[in-house]
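Hi Q.,

Before the meeting this afternoon, I wanted you to have the zinc ion prediction in hand. No need to reply - just skim if you have a minute. The sequence and ligand are here:
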Amino acid sequence: MKKTLGLFFLFGLLAFFFWRPALDFVLSIIPSWNNNWNYKAIADRKIGVQAYQGFSKPLSEQIKQSLEKTYGIPVYVLPERQLPASAFVHIKSPRYRADSLLRDLKAHKPDTLDHILGLCTVDISTTKRDASGAVKEPHDKYLDWGVFGLGYRPGPSCVISSFRLHRAPATAFYERIEKISIHEIGHNLGLEHCESPQCVMADAAEKLSTVDGVKAELCESCKRKIGLP
Ligand SMILES: [Zn+2]
Ligand SMILES: [Zn+2]
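Predicted structure with the ligand bound:
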């Protein structure tokens, strides 16, 4: 009896190790079973551009065009909306919480769109945390930390602000807006920060000089990751 049980156990173990790779292979070739139950090819997705009150309409149009050029998918400019009062904070200075705006954008995203980029002129902020999830030290610096943009990775919404992009040279302003928009939508599409120093997905960290140092395009490796030619 013991011997039979032992054999069953051994057989089960062998079956598990030999069949697991086969099962994983079958799962991996069925896109809807691959990590995300709602998986949709990037080429089939649509993006919305959502200006919040006061954001320039011609600038929204330019951002739409540069996103279409970069990602090769349709981008729609949505009617302007008011900033949600619930996102406003005054911790160090008057700001809107970028994380609250991400939730607001997600909640108001038309079902026909897969991702939505919020555009605003007010200063936006988030809480900077370390790897363990605790607020980074010093707390008073990082609890309400001003950012250029923020986006889910992957996810339905991202937001950028023009507030911190006005520093000279003035000619760099539009390029900065364009790069940060491409960067945040890249996060929505699942891209992480890139090691390639000139790639638009490089970590802008805390400096405008980093934004100025990258190109307004994805490197070959980032393109491959999301299936772009
Ligand atoms: Zn980033
Ligand atoms: Zn890259």
